[in-house]
Design a protein that fits this description.
With 396 residues, this protein is α+β, with helices and mostly antiparallel strands. The chain folds into two domains: 175 residues, no CATH class; 195 residues, 2-Layer Sandwich (Nucleotidyltransferase, domain 5). The chain is 42% helix and 23% strand. The strands form three sheets. Strands 2-6-7-1-5-4-3 form a seven-stranded antiparallel β-sheet. A hairpin with a 4-residue loop joins strand 3 and strand 4. The longest helix is centred in the middle third of the chain and has 35 residues. The protein is globular, with a radius of gyration of 26 Å. About 1% of the residues have low confidence. The structure holds zinc ion (ZN). Zinc ion binds next to loops.
């Protein structure tokens, strides 16, 4: 992440020495599995999702079971696919061509959980395929403290971080990433940014930055639980009732799991767009939606907001609410308010003709109305703009 990174970065390139034939074989197998892992993640996520956490949720288990990579390597493979897909999206946004990422170059990523650098001994230890398997190697460094490498390896300020292992011309090389914190920057006086979030049933959540959290899978799962419960109720035996209780517990766990996933995504979206405040509607506003939902959606949304509040606190973000009046009837483009703007999940403004996804239009309004109605977080930066996919906008 270029923006928001508070570190200087350097790379130290060294060849690996002292590998046995057995070690070499293991490294080759590990890199092959890694490339397979990246390609599996890329196949699964392409045109589906792109953020690190989404790709990880989607593909990590498959990557791990199909390649034999350990858990952390599998996560890093998902991240690698995520960043390649993000580059494609950027290229497309610049009007360039971009096709699904394929991984063929013999290199792989290591981080502090999969690699240990013993700088004082000039050695490194890399985890590989297989349970608890490691390859240990010497770093082929210039003698007598010569060479730029030593100023990072021997330094107390620089710490090693994400690195890549490369196989070239019969040799293994490590591009060791090093970082040190940038001197603390002055508190920024620039005005803060608001992220609007619309909650609903078809889309569990939509952000003003156009991130959608689809409710289809949740609804489908809910119907499954409902059907099984119905069958058990007909049975009517004591053990059937016990099973119904268990089932309700499992269903609640499942709903909470989904809400955690959505909460993480909302936090990630706020951080990506450098927001200070996450704004929801007061829950009364989605009551009419909830009535058609035919399940304890209100409980689920309360959980979601709890999770967001909890995670936001850890990230130094504020969570606030806005009165829902007009958030769904107002055109975010021209501000026109009318009941007839909204029909069947689509939004079309009767004045300016602007069409939009209704929940997305509402998410933008939630953020904008929060500012227009003069809300401010009780602490932290004052806010004057809200986050859109295309960048922050100031309400006019
Ligand atoms: Zn309009």
């Amino acid at each position: 992440m270029a923006s928001g990174d508070e570190h200087f970065h350097r790379a130290v390139i060294t060849r690996l020495d002292g590998l046995s034939a057995e070690d070499e074989k293991l490294l080759h197998a590990t890199v092959e599995a890694w490339l397979d892992g990246c390609n599996i993640a890329s196949d699964m996520a392409w045109n589906v999702c792109n953020t690190k956490s989404d790709v990880e949720s989607l593909a990590k288990t498959t990557v791990q079971s199909e390649t034999g990579l350990n858990s952390q390597h599998s996560i890093l493979a998902c991240y690698e696919a995520s960043s390649a897909i993000n580059s494609c999206i950027e290229r497309k946004q610049q009007g360039k061509k971009a096709s699904q990422p394929q991984f063929t170059t013999k290199s792989m990523v290591y981080d502090r959980r999969t690699m240990t650098v013993f700088a004082d001994k000039g050695r490194v230890s890399l985890t590989t395929l297989g349970d608890h398997s490691r390859v240990r190697a010497a770093l082929a460094l210039p003698q007598n403290g010569d060479g730029y490498q030593h100023q990072y390896l021997d330094s107390d300020e620089w710490e090693y971080t994400e690195s890549t292992l490369h196989y070239r011309d019969g040799d293994w090389h490590l591009h060791l990433g090093y970082r040190k914190p940038k001197p603390e920057s002055k508190p920024t006086t620039q005005n803060g940014t608001v992220l609007g979030v619309d909650l609903g049933v078809n889309q569990i959540a939509v952000t003003s930055t156009a991130r959608f959290f689809d409710g289809d899978t949740l609804a489908h799962k809910r119907r499954e639980f409902e059907r099984i419960r119905g069958n058990l109720q007909e049975t009517g035996t004591q053990s059937a009732h016990r099973t119904i209780d268990e089932l309700s517990g499992r269903e609640d766990e499942y709903v909470k799991h989904v809400m955690h996933f959505v909460a993480n995504g909302i936090i990630e979206e706020a951080l990506t767009h450098d927001c200070d405040v996450i704004v929801f509607e007061e829950l009364d506003g989605i009551r009419e939606d909830l009535q058609q939902a035919n399940w304890h959606a209100e409980w689920a949304f309360r959980k979601l907001r709890e999770f967001v509040a909890y995670k936001a606190k850890a990230e130094g973000l504020y969570v606030d609410t806005v009165n829902p009046e007009n958030t769904s009837k107002r055109c975010n483009e021209c501000g026109h308010i009318s009941n007839s703007n909204r029909s069947h999940g689509e939004f079309e403004c009767e004045r300016c003709g602007k069409q939009n996804h209704a929940d997305y239009n509402a998410a933008k309004n939630i953020a904008e109305l929060y500012l227009l109605r003069g809300h401010q977080p009780s602490r932290g930066r004052s806010v004057s703009q809200y986050a859109l996919k295309s960048g922050p906008r100031t309400p006019s």
